[in-house]
Amino acid sequence: MVPSSSISGRNWVVTGAGTGATSATLGQWIQSHGESCRVAVADPENSAYFPGWTLDLPDYGTGMPSRIEGIGRPRVEPGFRPDLVDLVVPVPDAASVAAARHVREVTGLPVGASSGTALWAALELVDRMRARGENGQRRLADSAGRFVGSQASAAEGAGELGLGLTIGQRTQASLTRSVWLGFGQNSSSSRRHN
User: Fold this and answer.
1) Distances (CA, A) of 40 to 92, 119, 130, 164, 173
2) Is the pLDDT of residue 77 over 90?
3) Contact 95/167 with Cβ under 8 angstroms?
4) Mean pLDDT value of segment 75-81
5) 2 Cβ partners below 8 Å, 6+ apart?
6) Residues 134, 127: contact at Cβ < 8 Å?
7) What is the Cα Rg of the chain in Å?
8) Which residues form the Tryptophan synthase beta chain-like PALP domain (predicted)?
9) CA-based, 20 to 30 A from 124: which of 44, 74, 95, 117?
């Protein structure tokens, strides 16, 4: 069950690309309750969801596993419902790991790389929302638990990441613009318009 307080009045909800069941459940709930919130799926490197969604190929496979534990798949899973997803955001693994590390350092929250993936995708959306003059916020949903140590060296000294900004610069830019911790409250947007 989806708590209505988590969705009502929000622009977007961002979830990781695991089996596809979470995005499908959220999308079904949003449709059945007439909410205007949109669903974005954060997809790590080598995962099949972004190319499968973009190419409209429900059985797409990359043949490569994701390096971000808990999310990403080498093939699109049957539980994934592309008709209920408004956007799939590809996220480089280095960005996922660096974002999680930054959140741990700044907040002390024990988040893993899958949260970093969702955070990076959310920051992409915040950038788009800001360009349109909308508000955006991000909540981290999981605890790192068993995954923190396994990703420790994947982005050692992430620095520039080759992505234009360091994760610290990107999150600091979002923090300074008051777009942190929640994710978007603006009921004026309609579904399927990114």
Assistant:
1) 16, 11, 17, 22, 21
2) yes
3) yes
4) 94
5) 25, 26, 29
6) no
7) 16
8) 11-130
9) 74
CB 38 within 8 A of CB 191: yes
What structural domains and CATH numbers belong to the chain? 10-176 (3.40.50.1100)
CA distances from 173 to 75, 106, 123, 124 (A): 35, 14, 10, 12
Closest CA to 140 of 115, 160, 163, 120: 115
Interhelix angle 93-107/167-176, nearest 10 degrees: 60
Across the chain, mean pLDDT equals 74
Q: Are strands 87-91 and 12-16 parallel, antiparallel or unpaired?
A: unpaired
Contact 69, 127 (CB under 8 A): no
- Say whether 106 sits in a helix, a strand or coil: helix
Terminal Cα distance for the chain, rounded: 26
Q: pTM of the full predicted structure?
A: 0.72
Nearest to 11 by CA among 42, 35, 41, 31: 35
In this structure, the chain runs to a length of 194
Give the residue among 172, 159, 183, 161 at the shortest CA–CA distance from 106: 172
Buried b (16+ CB within 10 A) or exposed e, 112-146: bbbbbbbbbbbbbbbeebeeeebbbbbebeeebee
